[in-house]
Amino acid sequence: MRNAQVRPGIGLALGGGFARGIAHLGVLQVLEQNHIPVSHIAGTSVGSILGAAYASGAPLAKILATSRTLKFRDIARWRVSRLGLASNYRLSDLMDRVFEARKFEDLRIPMAVVATDLATFDPVIFTQGPLVDAIRASCAFPGLFEPVEIGTRCLADGGLVAQVPTVAARQLGATRVLAVSVGIQDGRRGAPKNIFQVVARSVAAAQKHQLESWERHADLVLRPDVQKLAWDDFERASEAIEAGAAVATRALPRIKKMLEPAPEPEDYFSAEARSHLWLAEAHR
After folding, report:
1. Residue 6: how many CA atoms within 13 Å on its side-chain side?
2. Is 186 annotated in the active site?
């Protein structure tokens, strides 16, 4: 992280959102079709899965096809415990089927995965070591999934501290950051119907006032129109992909403008910043 790689292209910051986050693939589709290079990727929650799959070198067509057949059971297994209603260990099997690499060091595009330390409430940013534990931690939404233990840390969903990981993208070396946010709503109106909706809306309420903190580190923010999709609407993946492609197509002139020479990146490794940020290796 401290020897951030300067690479040509645009850095992507892909936020969380469960099934709604499949819209990230529509954005990637437009970038690829228009030969816009991706220099770095930072991902939170579902953004870490899709971002790492693409960074691994897996063909986008394969990732798109997998997303259209994805089911909740491909990610989770119900196992009620004191710490959560399900385990997301099955993510490992999904990665075996789709990913072309299983370690950060083997990725074709530099990648950062963000999780939350439940002891310190700080971000933990993974850039080295095995991908699977980092991604499982980043996707461990509280109340639904059990936290993931890595070393001495107990980790949960990265969206708690980095709804869209623009800062991580900058720290990775991106000089231009394109952020993709699928929103903080759960896709349903009225009173919550179950414990997951209660937790999800509580987290959304906290995140509502964090927007400025991540938006100011983005050069451009895309917001696919997926607010009518619920967190578990995996069967509507094609709608999410189309929404991502639509918003990226509309923004294409501004995205191309981002490829123009950029100023030197800011120093995101000041003493103050480091005092608030854990930089972690996957098995430290």
Report:
1. 7
2. no
Strands (E), the chain: 10-14, 38-44, 77-78, 84-87, 111-117, 123-126, 143-145, 148-150, 153-157, 177-180, 220-222, 278-280
Instruction: Indicate the residue type of 195.
Output: I
Q: For residue range 143-186, list pLDDT tens digits in order.
A: 777 888 998 999 988 988 889 999 999 999 999 999 999 976 55
Q: What is the CA radius of gyration of the chain?
A: 17
Element (H, E) at 230: none
Our answer to whether residue 74 is catalytic in this structure is: no
Single pTM value for the model: 0.84
How many residues make up the chain in this entry? 284
Lookup: tokens for 24: 């990230």
Neighbours of 69 (CB within 10 A): 10
CA dist 143 to 132, 176, 195, Å? 21, 35, 8
How many angstroms separate the CA atoms of 266 and 111, rounded?
Answer: 19
**C-alpha dihedral (284, 119, 4, 268), degrees to nearest 10:** -150
Q: What Cα–Cα distance (Å) separates residue 51 from each residue in 99, 121, 162, 191?
A: 11, 24, 15, 33
**Catalytic hit among 117, 133, 157, 186:** 157
Sheet holding 77-78, edge to edge: 77-78, 84-87, 143-145
- pLDDT, tens only, 248-282: 999 999 999 999 875 555 555 554 444 344 444 44
Token digits of residue 147: 């936290």
First-last CA distance in the chain: 15
CA dist 225 and 233 (Å) reads: 14
Closest CA to 139 of 154, 165, 121, 157: 157
Judged by phi (left if over 0) then psi (alpha if -120 to 50, else beta), residue 100 lies in alpha
Tokens (6 digits) for 143: 């109340």
Tokens standing for 142? Answer: 């509280």
Q: Which of 39, 45, 56, 67 does the annotation list as catalytic?
A: 45
